[in-house]
């Protein structure tokens, strides 16, 4: 949006020109902010620039200037014209520094680059002779509009940091005179550096010749860097001439002009941050990968609602409503701190993307027909409407869109995606202004586990779920798109009237509408409402029943329920049988019997799960290739646990070799991996029964197994059904594997971690199944781990204690048993298997012989038999032999004072000691917080102790009723002893209405630590007051002897007061007038003092 358009928009909205608020005008604006450029009372976006700049932050893409050689002004002219650009001085540094007050200047130049229209655009470039490639920032590339080519090039920098480049553009660069041109390939990066330099450099006193044309006339002003020119043409740019303009400062001649280089000294420059171009940390990717071998933590607890989710729920409840036809109308949850006015002009970007789209569609007639059919259907269903010409076409937000062609897909061959994350000229997108909401439905693991318990199961999908939910008319203006029927046809503007896939809040709004529909229609469709709340993952349904009648009712109710909300279920598929095949035929090709549901392939005829792995076999593999292949094995519930575990173990071995992502693996490692992936196609031969229940089961038992090795650990769960007069049946339910941590850990600790993993996994399965289970039996082949589980956690060390505490809490109703290692199926997870070995392993698919195993295994192992075991005893806490110590030292109070320098903490310690004594003597135990009486009792005891030590003769005289001796320090204080035994000051103000402590303060002896602690306490409490105020505050309750010197010493020794002590500035006197310094005849100049002198206080003395 141009400056004039922005100004007209603000005026049309009658908004404030300073803060852009619509509730007042600029004359009534109370905002303290102003324009960053000129400091005047208007917004920075409304500032009118008088000098050209290449900063994309200042110039919109449509207003980039095209400079001519005549525009290259002298340094002094730029200095004079840039005084208003002081806002740039607050930017961060992006130039090299050498650690002290010197800063190294980077060679910068103004380079002219041809854009897609053939116009030469001036961009700011950095010349780097140490870079093998040249780079361009994303903002500069978007301004040029040149075609971007897909590449995959890793770029390495300092400290072996690397960044992967996936786009490249080719451009022609030239100098200002256009007498030299070069064709260069630029790699596209998000940003080259921060502003360079960090702050404005004062160059007024630099000896730069006036006839010199600089390559970058504004090199001393902080600006963004658009280009980085590498070593490919670096020395071709340089010329022979070189001018020295100061110490370590040079002007190097080049084809672009003179480059300023060298180092400068400036104490005002920020050198705390040092930058080197093209370095990036890959900590995010590395941390993600190391999660393979971190201590496992299954998400078994239901997450609490976040503040964002609570806000979105409240917003939905207030704004949604239901139309007469049953459809829901919702509003997108906009962030309150981001008004819609922050969305800049997006129409230009959408128009450009549309032209690029049509270029692709002209090359692909099939995609062109599918794309046109899709949008024609969109319009015919009234999911979008054309905007009339008399409307404000520039207002709102335009969504760029593109298509993804999937020829192999049998239902949706083309998917059109709307890009709600496209940035406008303001730097914001629609998704930046929207809340995402949160997750409302259950996770994939729970839905798939529950799907396996139904004898009769079905899957279905809501047709066009997002488009069946209408958007409030007040928000459709931010969902505009551009479309035309052919490349030469006029462009039309449309508004999308429904929830659009691609907006940040679309998944939340869709799932929230499904839940609201279930709640609204719960009375009419009770079974279907339950399915809608529990068995849906986005628009996919996986549900069923163990009774055919109920199964049939659910299917009928679910269709009617969704029709009430204007939605339609399609892609029906049910477990195959002669009866169900007629009732629930496939809503697909009649020959299709395999359905991919939530990432798993389900054969509805055999009612089994199958897997498919796409394998790329090469003779050389990189770490990235290995990770990519592992990620393709999608196994949510862990039915292929040993295979996944072996792949993870191999990935950890690669990690420990510290090889780069694109470095070829050693031959022996590559051969091991190749042997492993050659067996992956055999996954298609594995068929796993979907349902684990039997029709005539009288009881069900859940069995969990845990095991660990030096390579990894894992847990696996089986479901045992005991039918009537038949042998029990045991089927694999799920598993979870984890690679052992890279840090050395003992096998018993790994076994305990596996037991904790099994406990969490069992808890997760129990909450997901929502069915009655007779008993749960958990097995481990580690006797040490079982002994720890049966030990009170308070007797164990921290690592073991924390895990045992969690295990005991999660499995308090379950039973732990020991199993021999050869019968433990979890042993296969801890070591890993390839696909062929797993397919032939009955122990994994059918589990151990549970009936004989249960009969021969005792219910529990006695802990006493492991007390002498070294592994067990090493994790026991050392029990102290001495539990009570009697202290009869007479210096107890002095030792107590050495424990702390806090007066309040000292009183609390004494108060707790007195409470302990009271609880020992009394039958009623006090366990509440300390009371004021207890605090007072402790304080009086402490004061009595010190008064008895320092004022023993005075106390003896006062108890006899006589006065203190004439040699006593208390003789002028008229002391007396109160009811608590404290010596207080007498005086003549007994009838005053002030408190007792103020009338008769407690006398404190001098020269002891207690008095100093009291002064320090009051000094900190009153925010570090001065010595006189401190003394006055203390005397409100106490009368310390020698208090003035103590107060002075406490204030003087306070570190915070010392650091913040103000220093009096001594002003330098001005020059004497000429009459007083010029020799002259006596009385030639005479003066008359009409008033004065004036005396001022300077410290504790007077000065004229």
From TrEMBL:
<feature type="domain" description="Integrase zinc-binding">
    <location>
        <begin position="1008"/>
        <end position="1062"/>
    </location>
</feature>
<dbReference type="InterPro" id="IPR041588">
    <property type="entry name" value="Integrase_H2C2"/>
</dbReference>
<dbReference type="Pfam" id="PF05380">
    <property type="entry name" value="Peptidase_A17"/>
</dbReference>
<dbReference type="InterPro" id="IPR043502">
    <property type="entry name" value="DNA/RNA_pol_sf"/>
</dbReference>
<dbReference type="GO" id="GO:0071897">
    <property type="term" value="P:DNA biosynthetic process"/>
</dbReference>
<dbReference type="InterPro" id="IPR008042">
    <property type="entry name" value="Retrotrans_Pao"/>
</dbReference>
<dbReference type="Pfam" id="PF17921">
    <property type="entry name" value="Integrase_H2C2"/>
</dbReference>
<dbReference type="InterPro" id="IPR043128">
    <property type="entry name" value="Rev_trsase/Diguanyl_cyclase"/>
</dbReference>
<protein>
    <recommendedName>
        <fullName>Integrase zinc-binding domain-containing protein</fullName>
    </recommendedName>
</protein>
């Amino acid at each position: 949006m141009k400056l004039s358009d922005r100004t007209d928009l603000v005026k049309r909205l009658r908004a404030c020109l300073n803060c852009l608020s619509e509730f007042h005008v600029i004359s009534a604006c109370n905002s303290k902010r102003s324009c960053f450029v000129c400091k005047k009372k208007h917004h920075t976006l409304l500032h009118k620039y008088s000098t050209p700049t290449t900063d994309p932050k200042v110039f919109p893409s449509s207003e980039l200037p095209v400079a001519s050689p005549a525009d290259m002004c002298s340094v002094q002219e730029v200095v004079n014209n840039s005084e208003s650009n002081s806002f740039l001085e607050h930017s961060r540094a992006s130039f090299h520094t050498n650690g002290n007050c010197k800063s190294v200047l980077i060679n910068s130049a103004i380079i002219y680059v041809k854009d897609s229209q053939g116009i030469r655009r001036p961009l700011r470039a950095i010349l780097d002779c140490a870079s093998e490639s040249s780079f361009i920032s994303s903002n500069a590339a978007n301004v040029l509009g040149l075609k971007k080519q897909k590449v995959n090039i890793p770029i390495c920098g300092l400290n072996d940091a690397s960044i992967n480049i996936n786009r490249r553009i080719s451009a022609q660069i030239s100098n200002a005179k256009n007498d030299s041109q070069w064709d260069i390939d630029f790699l596209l990066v998000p940003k080259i550096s921060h502003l360079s330099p960090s702050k404005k450099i004062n160059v007024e006193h630099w000896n730069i010749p006036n006839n010199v044309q600089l390559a970058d006339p504004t090199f001393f002003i902080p600006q963004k860097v658009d280009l980085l020119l590498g070593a490919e043409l670096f020395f071709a740019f340089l010329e022979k001439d070189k001018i020295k303009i100061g110490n370590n400062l040079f002007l190097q001649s080049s084809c672009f002009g003179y480059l300023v280089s060298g180092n400068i000294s400036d104490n005002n420059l920020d050198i705390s941050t040092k930058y080197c171009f093209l370095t990036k940390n890959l900590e995010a990717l590395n941390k993600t990968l190391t999660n393979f071998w971190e201590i496992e933590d299954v998400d078994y607890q239901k997450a609490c609602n976040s503040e964002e989710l609570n806000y979105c729920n409240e917003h939905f409840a207030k704004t949604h409503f239901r139309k007469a036809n049953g459809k829901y109308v919702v509003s997108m949850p906009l962030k309150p701190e981001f008004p819609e006015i922050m969305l800049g002009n997006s129409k230009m970007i959408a128009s450009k993307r549309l032209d690029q789209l049509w270029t692709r569609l002209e090359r692909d007639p099939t995609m062109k027909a599918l794309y046109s059919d899709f949008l024609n259907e969109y319009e015919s269903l009234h999911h979008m409407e054309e905007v009339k010409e008399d409307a404000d076409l520039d207002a709102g937000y335009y969504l760029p869109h593109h298509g993804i062609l999937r020829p192999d897909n049998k239902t949706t061959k083309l998917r059109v995606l709307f890009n709600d994350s496209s940035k406008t000229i303001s730097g914001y997108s629609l998704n930046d202004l929207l809340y995402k909401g949160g997750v409302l439905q259950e996770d994939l693991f729970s839905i798939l586990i529950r799907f396996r318990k139904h004898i009769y199961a079905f899957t279905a999908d809501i047709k066009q779920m997002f488009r069946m939910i209408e958007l409030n008319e007040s928000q459709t203006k931010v969902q505009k798109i551009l479309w035309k029927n052919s490349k030469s046809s006029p462009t039309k503007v449309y508004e999308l009237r429904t929830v659009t896939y691609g907006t940040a809040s679309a998944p939340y709004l869709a799932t929230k509408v499904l839940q609201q529909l279930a709640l609204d229609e719960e009375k009419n469709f009770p079974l279907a409402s339950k399915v809608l709340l529990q068995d849906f993952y986005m628009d996919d349904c996986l549900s069923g029943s163990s009774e055919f009648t109920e199964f049939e009712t659910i299917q009928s109710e679910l269709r009617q329920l969704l029709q009430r909300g204007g939605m339609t279920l399609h892609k029906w598929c049910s477990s195959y049988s002669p009866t169900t095949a007629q009732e629930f035929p496939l809503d697909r090709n009649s020959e299709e019997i395999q359905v991919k549901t939530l990432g798993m392939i389900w054969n509805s005829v055999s009612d089994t799960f199958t897997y498919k792995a796409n394998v790329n076999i090469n003779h050389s593999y990189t770490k990235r290739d290995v990770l990519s292949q592992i990620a393709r094995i999608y196994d949510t519930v862990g039915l292929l646990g040993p295979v996944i575990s072996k792949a993870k173990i191999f990935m950890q071995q690669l990690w420990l070799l510290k090889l780069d992502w694109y470095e070829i693996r050693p031959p022996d490692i590559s051969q091991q991996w190749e042997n492993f992936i050659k067996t992956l196609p055999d996954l298609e031969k594995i068929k796993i029964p979907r349902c684990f229940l039997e029709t005539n089961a009288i009881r069900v038992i859940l069995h969990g197994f845990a095991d660990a090795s030096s390579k990894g650990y894992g847990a696996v769960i089986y479901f045992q059904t005991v039918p009537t007069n038949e042998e029990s049946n045991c089927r694999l339910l799920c598993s979870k594997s984890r690679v052992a941590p890279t840090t050395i850990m003992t096998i018993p600790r790994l076994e305990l971690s596996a037991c904790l993993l099994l406990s969490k996994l069992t808890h997760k399965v129990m909450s997901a199944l929502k069915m009655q289970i007779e008993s749960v039996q958990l097995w481990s082949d580690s006797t040490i781990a079982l002994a720890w589980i049966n030990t009170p956690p308070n007797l164990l060390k921290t690592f073991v204690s924390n895990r045992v505490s969690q295990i005991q809490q999660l499995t308090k109703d379950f039973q732990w048993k020991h199993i021999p290692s050869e019968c433990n199926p979890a042993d296969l997870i801890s070591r890993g298997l390839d696909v062929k070995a797993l397919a032939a392993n009955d122990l994994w698919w059918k589990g151990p012989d549970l009936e004989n195993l249960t009969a021969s295994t005792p219910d529990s192992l006695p802990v006493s038999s492991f007390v002498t075991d070294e592994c067990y005893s090493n994790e026991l806490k050392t029990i102290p032999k001495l539990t009570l110590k009697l202290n009869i030292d007479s210096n107890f109070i002095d030792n107590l004072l050495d424990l702390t320098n806090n007066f309040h903490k000292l009183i609390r310690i004494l108060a707790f000691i007195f409470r302990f004594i009271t609880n020992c003597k009394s039958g009623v135990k006090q366990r509440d917080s300390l009371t004021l009486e207890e605090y007072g009792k402790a304080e009086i005891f402490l004061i009595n102790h010190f008064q008895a030590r320092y004022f023993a003769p005075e106390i003896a005289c006062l108890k006899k009723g006589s006065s203190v001796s004439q040699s006593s320090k208390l003789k002028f204080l008229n002391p007396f002893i109160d009811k608590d035994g404290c010596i207080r000051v007498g005086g003549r103000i007994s009838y005053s209405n002030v408190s007792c402590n103020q009338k008769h303060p407690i006398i404190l002896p001098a020269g002891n630590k207690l008095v100093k602690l009291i002064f320090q306490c009051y000094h900190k409490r009153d925010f570090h007051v001065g010595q006189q105020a401190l003394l006055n505050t203390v005397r409100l309750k106490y009368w310390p002897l020698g208090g003035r010197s103590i107060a002075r010493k406490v204030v003087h020794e306070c570190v915070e007061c010392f650091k913040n002590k103000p220093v009096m500035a001594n002003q330098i006197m001005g020059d004497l007038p000429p009459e007083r310094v010029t020799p002259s005849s006596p009385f030639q100049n005479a003066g008359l003092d009409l008033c004065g002198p004036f005396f001022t206080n300077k410290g504790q003395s007077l000065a004229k």
